[in-house]
Design brief:
With about 375 residues, the protein is an alpha+beta fold. Helices cover about 40% and strands about 15% of the residues. It contains 9 helices and 8 strands. The longest helix has about 35 residues.
């Protein structure tokens, strides 16, 4: 199924734990290459990719082979605008996922546990979270992504490939044993699909089920020193995230109507090349920063190979931005120097030229223009 790579999809890679940035202060996995044992085909233990923080229209680096300035493009030659005012959309109220709140708290809390906090006097049971080290081998040789130290695995969660978690039940902390598993035939890596592997697994300790305030304090979050305060913090973050998600849904719904009602006659080749190049560079950079292969990351996020994603995204992004610029031109909504000065001041800059130099003048201009157009569209749309 083709996925709609809308404006939200310009935000490509960052860890799921970015949903709780302040929660990661105690993270201590020294070696975590678990994408090849995760049953969900995710990257780095199912925790390192989500749609956030990388824009395809980021400022061009010095070694770019293409360049494009949207505001200088005669977009009217390429776009025939349809109706973009008087629209109507339906968007539900933001909802808080309590399961997500619980998961955020558990992840944050467990990241700060030390071995001395762990349970070591009983065997692993179904439902436990066990802190483990493991090394995966195939035909006696370690393979990429098959090893990790100090990984917190919930037994019975189905996080890892079938048979892995079940074989840890009954193992005592401090014990090391080999388990044999078979990768699913449909596994994402053709080199592993359908093949047997042996994992040497050590149970370091079992995470305690009761939470203590002193562990929460290790997180170092201002005004969070108790378990109850940690739950409140996570819930407040979830509420903010839900509001942000609703805002994204509003923008995406409006854009979909505007784009579907407009006609793109042609995409300028220099624009297409620029967007494609910048998306490739930024996607690759962030994938590598998160220890992920671009193909795995693309499959995880969009259910398609990277080249297919790149082609689809570039087409949708260029069409979207041509339409946005055409509306800006028609309604007098282009970014001004005064807008940039205000943005620079709000970002803590005393000098607008420094603001432009450090953040990319074209990127700032396009971002402000985009925001002004979206504000205009929302003001002229009935949101139910």
């Amino acid at each position: 199924m083709k996925k709609n790579l809308n404006r939200t999809a310009t935000l490509i890679l960052v860890g799921i734990m970015s949903t709780m940035v302040a929660f990661t202060a105690c993270g201590k996995n020294e070696k975590d290459n678990t994408d090849t044992v995760s049953s969900s085909d995710s990257v780095s233990a199912a925790d390192t990719v989500s749609e956030n923080d990388v824009t395809a229209d980021a400022d061009v680096s010095e070694d770019s082979e293409a360049s494009f300035v949207l505001r200088n493009c005669p977009v009217e030659e390429y776009v025939t605008l349809g109706e973009y005012t008087g629209l109507s959309i339906e968007v539900g109220e933001p909802e808080i996922d309590e399961a997500q709140v619980e998961d955020m708290v558990k992840r944050a809390y467990s990241s700060c546990l030390e071995e001395s906090d762990g349970v070591k006097d009983r065997a692993v049971e179904d439902g436990d979270i066990a802190n483990i080290n493991y090394v995966g081998k195939m035909d006696g040789v370690e393979f990429d992504g098959g090893s990790a130290d100090n990984y917190n695995l919930e037994i019975g969660s189905g996080t890892f490939i079938p048979g892995f978690e079940e074989q840890l039940i009954g193992q005592m902390p401090g014990e090391t044993k080999d388990i044999t598993v078979t990768f699913p035939e449909e596994y994402k890596s053709a080199d592993l699909a359908g093949k047997d592997a042996v994992f040497t697994v050590t149970i370091n300790y079992i995470l305690p089920t009761d939470m203590k305030d002193e562990v929460v304090q290790r997180l170092g979050i201002d005004e969070v020193s108790t378990v109850d305060e940690l739950y409140d913090y996570a819930r407040n973050y979830a509420e903010t995230s839900a509001d942000s998600d609703r805002e994204n849904e509003i923008q995406n719904s409006i854009l979909k109507l505007v784009i579907n009602g407009s006609e793109i006659k042609e995409i300028p080749q220099d624009m297409y090349d620029y967007y494609s190049l910048e998306t490739r560079k930024n996607f690759t950079s962030y994938a590598e920063a998160n220890g992920a292969d671009v193909e795995v990351a693309s499959q995880t996020l969009y259910g398609m190979g990277f080249e297919e994603f790149l082609e689809q995204y570039t087409k949708e992004a260029t069409e979207r931005d041509l339409i946005i610029q055409a509306i800006a031109n028609k309604e007098g909504l282009n970014c001004t120097e005064a807008d940039i000065e205000v943005a620079g001041f709000n970002a803590g800059y005393d000098d607008v030229e420094t603001f432009k130099a450090e953040n990319g003048g074209d990127y700032i201009y396009d971002s402000i223009t985009y925001s002004k157009v979206m504000d205009f569209l929302k003001e002229n749309t009935e949101i139910n």
